Amino acid sequence: MTTSPRPSMETHPDIIDMQRRHEMAERTTSTPKGQAIETMALLIGLYLAASPWITGFNALSTLAVSNLLTGIAYAVLMSGGFGRAYERTHSMAWACCALGVWTIIAPWVVAGNVDTTKTIVNNVITGALALLLAMAASAAARAAESSHARRGMRTPYSDAPGRS
């Protein structure tokens, strides 16, 4: 009785697909555009988290806490996810778009009377920049995915039902 050799782990389709996704993420984030988006997003997130103390509205505690938590979440999602988990990059970027929109509207919707000139200017500008950077990250992820697909390689979403 002859036995056929067992395939090695290196040739398993899931391992090969994971390696391709990792290589795609590396190519996306190793570009100057990818690095610039990631760096600016980290800085925007850190600024948003510290902005109540930088611009002097830390006494308005509801907005200060909102900006602190939103800034930390934005910085972690945009800088931590962009190059490490390619298949989730697109959804993380869209979640950060929502955080940017929240930052813009927060002075009017958080509890208390916190809609002063300095809070509105700070949050609208910071939120708009955060939104633009998140949209740029989403576009970069989508562009990398489509260029990968144009070269005839499978993408992380190509096996989903209804997609060809």
Mean pLDDT: 77
What percent of residues are in strands?
A: under 5%
Label the structural class.
mainly alpha
Question: What is the multimeric organization of the chains shown?
Answer: single chain
Give me the strand/helix succession. HHHHH
Helix count equals 5
Structure commentary:
The protein has about 160 residues and is mainly α. Helix content is about 75%, strand content about 0%. The protein has 5 helices and no strands. Helix 2 runs antiparallel to helix 5 and helix 3 (about 60-80) packs antiparallel against helix 4 (about 85-110).
Write the layout of secondary structure elements.
Layout: H1 13-29, H2 32-55, H3 61-81, H4 86-109, H5 117-150
Helix pairs in contact: 1-5, 2-3, 2-5, 3-4, 3-5, 4-5
